[in-house]
Amino acid sequence: MRKLPQSARFPMFILMLNLFIALLGQGMLIPILPEYLKLFHAGGTVAGFLVAAFGAAQFLFSPLGGQWADRFGRKKLIMSGMFLVVISDFIFAVSTSLPLLYIARFIGGISLGLMVPANLAYVADITTPETRAKGMGYFGASMNLGMVLGPGLGGLIAEMGVRMPYFVASGLGLVAALLTLLLPETLPPGKRTSTPTNKQGISSATQIWSSFKVPYFNYLLIILVMTFGLMSYETVFSLFAENKYSFSASTISIIITMGAIIGIVVQIWLLDVFVKRLGEIKLIRWSLMMTSIALLFMLIKVNLIFLLCASALYFAFNAFLRPTVSSLISKHAGDRQGYASGLNTTYSSLGTVFGPLVAGLLFDINVNLPYIFGAFMLLAALLLTMKVQRSMRGNGYASE
């Protein structure tokens, strides 16, 4: 088993603790969203637009996040993003109209647009190519751990009022932002880019155009299509479980908690083993196939145990996907880790913009349609991996 370098363990611990607290706050919000939206007489379409507003902001600001992480250092961007998380959750807590909810989610998207590329670049800085997938796995596991405890905690706090979890999430975000002060900076001034931002092309459109020329462009396409499909599950699951199964917030919390536990086990103990045994491309291919099958299983209404099994299958193979593709992108990024991480987040946020919009609209037509659509998109990403493998092998990049 490949281990992280000794020098990487303390900053990785602080980074994981930071992300754990941030996602603990976010996890508290998921099971109570259907009840919260009822205050605004809203349903699946609004849920889709809320997630899309988040993704749109992330799409617009990810190029800045990636470029600034290379130009000003990782730590400043991580801290800025965390403070915006605090503001976003607080506005969501005090909102009395749908426009305020959209503003809150847009600010939340800005926060991730600035923070995620810096986080990914930070992990790349403190790992070697051999331990990169493992580092990305730890990155994902810390977020999943927050999702394990978050839903149950959110359900308990909601007993004091449906808005209370959002206030608590804001407070936890502030704690995480302050913890970032303990992180050492991994990009010394001498290695930072000095090119003015306007010459690099700060707009998302410009960055996407320039991304066509990078050697890992095909992996970015996989990120886009994969995220488009996965968001069909993530956007409407709480509404899906409530409408199709009449599950309560506490039952939905159990399903999400179980899934997050599975994700932690996979990303900490199994990811590195499977990458070593199968290689990244084959692991991505198997994961895309199994997640699409799991989505289709969820359409079959049996009972809670059956849905738990289908969800377990989905969460297990979903946990392989993001860190594995991110690791491949990072390996081919050279000394432009922030830029590559920004592209990674940009393409992911494109899927986060349009996936929820489609999922929300389809949900209001029929509760099953988002999952059929999601399975179709994941199978499309599976077909794309075949093209990627041929292309990257021809250039000597494929990782088998």
UniProtKB/TrEMBL annotation:
The Major facilitator superfamily (MFS) profile domain, residue ranges: 11-392
Any Pfam family the entry gives: MFS_1
Keyword Membrane: yes
Localization annotation: Cell membrane
Keywords assigned: Membrane, Transmembrane, Transmembrane helix, Transport
Descriptive protein name: MFS transporter
Record-stated family: Belongs to the major facilitator superfamily. TCR/Tet family.
Gene Ontology MF: a single term: transmembrane transporter activity
Membrane-related topology note: Multi-pass membrane protein
The keyword Membrane is annotated on this UniProt entry: yes
Domain of life: Bacteria
PANTHER family documented for this protein: MAJOR FACILITATOR SUPERFAMILY DOMAIN-CONTAINING PROTEIN 10, MULTIDRUG RESISTANCE PROTEIN 2
Transmembrane segments: 12-33, 39-65, 77-96, 102-124, 136-158, 164-183, 216-233, 245-271, 305-321, 369-386
Gene Ontology terms: cellular component: plasma membrane
CDD domains attached to this UniProt entry: MFS_MdtG_SLC18_like
